[in-house]
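EI: anyone free to look at a 185-residue chain?
SC: sure, send it
EI:
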Amino acid sequence: MPPDAARRSDRSRRAILVAALELLEALGHSRLTIEAVAARAGVGKQTIYRWWPSKGPLLFDAFLEYGPAGADALPSGVPVVDLKRELRAAAEELAERRFDQVCRVLVHEERTDLVTLLLMPRRMALEERLRTAQRLGEVRADVDVSAAAELLLGPVYQRWFLRTAPLTGEFADAVVDLVLRALTG
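SC: here you go
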């Protein structure tokens, strides 16, 4: 019986995705090459280019499949606790080497559509937490929840992108405290 081509392709695809993430962690995005991924995965580079046009989309798919292991905690029902937990999770995610490197490759390749897909779930979770706070009367009813989520995430993403200072949980908490003062007054 001949080997199943679909199974072989899936095995190669998974090997490529794992190799890409392993090399990304070992080498960083600037030294990562398709040739190195192909060699580590045991495939020809033409196989990689058949499925992905560049390392940005390859890393995006790898990260989606094998990306951050942390699961989001269920809301506690205490808006300030939930907002701090969510913003801390964003900071921790950006500090994770794989996530950091994947996002930097995507930004470098000007693939903001893919960066948005990686970052949008965090924003949506913050918006939901803010809506809950509005329903409970802990955030003013006239607050634009979308803009408020951007106020929360903006400083975190700026600190990550510019590397102006360490991205810590304490920083995330301070951002939440500052933004909440504006949203509750």
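EI: The chain has a mean pLDDT of 86.
SC: 👍
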